[in-house]
What we know:
The structure holds two protein chains of two kinds.
Chain A: H1 3-14, H2 35-49, H3 55-60, H4 64-70
Helix pairs in contact in A: 1-2
Chain B: E1 2-5, E2 8-17, E3 21-23, H1 24-28, H2 37-47, E4 51-53, H3 61-75, E5 83-89, H4 100-107, E6 115-119, H5 125-138, E7 144-152, E8 158-160, E9 173-182, E10 189-195, E11 203-204, E12 220-222, H6 224-245, E13 255-258, H7 263-273, H8 284-287, H9 294-303, E14 310-319, E15 323-332, E16 340-341
Parallel strand pairs in B: 2-16, 5-6, 5-7, 8-12, 13-14
Antiparallel strand pairs in B: 1-10, 2-9, 3-4, 7-9, 10-15, 11-12, 14-15
Helix pairs in contact in B: 6-7
Amino acid sequence: MSEKEKLALLEETFDVDEGALNPEMLLNDIDEYDSMTKLSLIVMVEEEFGKKLTGAEIKGFKTVQDILNVMV
Amino acid sequence: MLSTISGIRIGAVAVGVPTKWVSLEEQFGFEGSGMDERTLNKFIKNTGVEGRFVSVTQQTNSDLCCAAAEKLLTEKQIDRNKIGFLIYVSQTFDYRQPATSLVLQHRLNIGIDCMAFDIGLGCSGYVYGLNVIGSLMMQSKAEYGLLLCGETGTRDIICGKDVSNNEDILFGDAGSATLLVRDPACPDMNFMSKSDGSRFRALIHPWGFYRNPVKVRDVDYMDGISVFNFSTEEAPALINDLMSEMKSSSEDYDYLVLHQANKLIMKQIAKKTGFPEEKSLKSIDIFGNTSSASIPTALVKNLADSVKGRSRFLLSGYGIGLSWGAVDCYIDEKDILPLVKTDEYFEDGYQSNDI
Lengths: 72, 355
């Protein structure tokens, strides 16, 4: 999956407009990245990439890139 | 662990709620409510909660259970001296001592040839309660058992591990009553149950009791991500284990009734156990998450008007403890009674010698 496709998936999960996210963005600065989004993120990563994110992993995410890195 | 109960069946189910229903829109859909529109809409979309029943200040969960039980016992014309077991499953008790079940026995005029006691469990409580009361009835001669489960969840403030959580608006108030009946000809109830105390911190209200007597904060703590991962992993695994023991599949059941945790969790569990969404009964939209009453609320909301006879159910509860269970059982849909609404509460008349 290309980075562009992964970003599109993340935008869908975050429920933000197409093109709203870029890899350098700090998650703390994204209003939509709340507890509900984190649960949707777990579901998306499990369904698309077959792995279950833990609370510790999610806590470790600082940027959008950090999430893209586990989407393999 | 698999357990089988023979000769005992669910004979009636009723649910009691307060009369006041508050929509989240009404509660938070205005400027200065503490929640912006986007967050509110997203919460409603993901959890499925549109509103909750909210009890009046003096009302406790036992009042809701009592109203449900009264309706059930009257409707089914049950001889109250033949109820051998009364079990109250909850985490919201009337008193620190004695057990709430004893007060309920008195209020419901149930005879003294009865074992009345409480079980302190949350979301797994309904399935655990059925297992315990069924087992006790099986090894006794009691004609009936009465299982009362529920919570006044709107009283609790939930504090998420990660900030900006809104879990406290997830929970609603409801009390249920389930009648268990001796019936030698009925099909077995088969249970699968698990507990994992090593994860007791995932959902906890640590203050104001014996371990930590000082009430630092009056809140429940929830590690939302751990609980979400637990619910979407362990619950489907347990249901699949039970179906494999029963040599059954989702096609053999008329309904899947999951603890109404939130829509996202229920959807994941149904998917992982092969149940189509339409077989999975929901009540979270109107009732919110009502802990051990949530399975009965889903039965009542969807099937109270049904004229169909006996159907096969797979019920599963999972949560605080951590504790989880599932049961394969049959219920006659005509035995599921319409919702009972009440604002009545018990005035215990207790006067302390100290005051």
